[in-house]
Amino acid sequence: MSSTTPVMTFAGQLGHLTPEQEKAFVEFKQLCAESGIYTPAEDGENGKPASHEDILMIRFLRARRFVTADALVLFRDSEKWREDEKIDDVFNHFDVDEYEKCRKLHPQWTGRRDRDGMPLFVYTISHVSGSNLAEYTAAKNKLQRLTMLYESVTQFVIPVANAVHVRARNQAASTSKPAETTPTAGSEKKLESVSSITIITDIGNVGLWTFWNLKGHMQESAKIASDRYPETLYRQFIVNAPSFFPTVWGWIKKWFDPVTTSKITILSGSLTPKELREKLEECIAPENLPKKYGGDLDWDYGDVPDVDKEIREVIGEDVFSDGGLTGPVRWVVEGKGMVGRAVKVGSVGGKDRRGEKLGA
C-alpha cells in the first residue's frame, strides 16, 4: 500500500514503443489477421479503417508483456466471448434507463482528463450500498450491466479522448517552428496516444461491513476487466482511506497482478484537504479536479459528464441537446484517417436510438 504517487512512464504506449515492441505489435496484428479476428486498414485515402483501433490492440499486447502468442490467446478468447454473448448487439439495444441505473454503481466519467490526457473517472463507494447494491445483486443480468459500462469506456470515452489528444498533438506540430520540435533536456515529455483511464476511488464514510458486502461486486468487476478489457487502467487514486483499509487492501490486491497494483496510490483519510488536493493536482489540473477534492470543477458523483472545451469541439454540440451524454454512445470512425463522430445507441421505451448521428 503506497501513499506516494507512482512515477508514470509511457513504456508500452503507442508512440513510445521500443524497436522490439514495435516488431511485436506488427507481428501480433499479423497473427490476429491470419486468425480471422482482425482486419487491417485498406490502402488508399478512402480505404476502410481497421476492424479494431490500435489503441485497443496495444492493450492486449501490453497485458501479456508483448509476448505475441499469449496476447493472441487473450484477444481471441475475448473476441469469441464478444461473439457468443452478442456484446455489440446488446450494447446497441441496451435500455437507456437501465444503463443510467447501473452507471450509479460504477466509476463515472467526469468529462475531463488528467494531465497526460487520460479520461478522469470518479468512483464513490458510499453510493454503492443499501438498496442500490441489493438491486444489483438480485439482477439476473448483472454481468451484462457491468459489461455495458466497460463497453462505454472502450467504445466511446477512450476513443474520444484519444481523438482529442491526437488532434491537439497534430495542431501543435503544424504550428511549431522546426527549432521547437527538438526535445531539450528540460522539455516536458508528452504522451502520443490515449488508451487507458485514471480513476479517483473515494472510500470515505464506508465501514468494514460494506466492503465485505461489496467483495463479490469488486471481484466480478476485476475479472471482467482482466479477461475482456485488459490494461484500461492508467492510474488510480484511492482517497479518504480509513484506518482499517490495510485489511481490505489485503483482499483486493490478490485479485490484480503486480503491474496493476503498482498503478494504485492510496491516500489516507487523515490527510488535510490541502494535502489531498496537492497530491491529486500532481496529475490532475485544478480545472479538471472536482471541488470535492479541492479542485475547481463543479461536478459530483452521479452527474452527467461535464466535458471540457476540446472534447466538446470534437463531439459537436448536437450531442448535448437532449440531456447530454446519457445512455450508451459509440465513437464511430467510418473512413481511414477520419476523426470520427458520436452516435447514440441503446433504446428508450423500446424505441431504438441507433442511427441518430451526433456531431460532425
Summarize the structure in words.
A 5-stranded mixed sheet has the order 1-2-3-4-5, covered by helices on one side. A 3-stranded antiparallel sheet has the order 6-7-10. A two-stranded antiparallel sheet has the order 8-9. The radius of gyration is 20 Å and the shape is globular. Helix 7 crosses helix 13. The longest helix has 34 residues. It is of the alpha/beta class and 360 residues long.
What is this structure's SSE topology?
Elements: H1 19-34, H2 54-63, H3 68-84, H4 87-93, H5 96-103, E1 108-113, E2 119-124, H6 130-138, H7 142-175, E3 197-202, H8 208-213, H9 215-228, E4 233-241, H10 245-252, H11 258-261, E5 264-268, H12 273-281, H13 309-315, E6 329-332, E7 341-344, E8 347-348, E9 351-352, E10 356-358
Parallel strand pairs: 2-3, 3-4, 4-5
Antiparallel strand pairs: 1-2, 6-7, 7-10, 8-9
Condensed summary:
This protein has 13 helices and 10 strands.
Distance between the termini: 45 Å
Order of helices and strands: HHHHHEEHHEHHEHHEHHEEEEE
Give the uncertain stretches in residue-range form. 178-187, 356-360
Assess the beta-strand content as a share of residues: 5-15%
Alpha-beta content class: alpha/beta
Record the strand order, biggest sheet: 1-2-3-4-5
Number of strands: 10
Overall shape: globular
Give the number of helices. Answer: 13
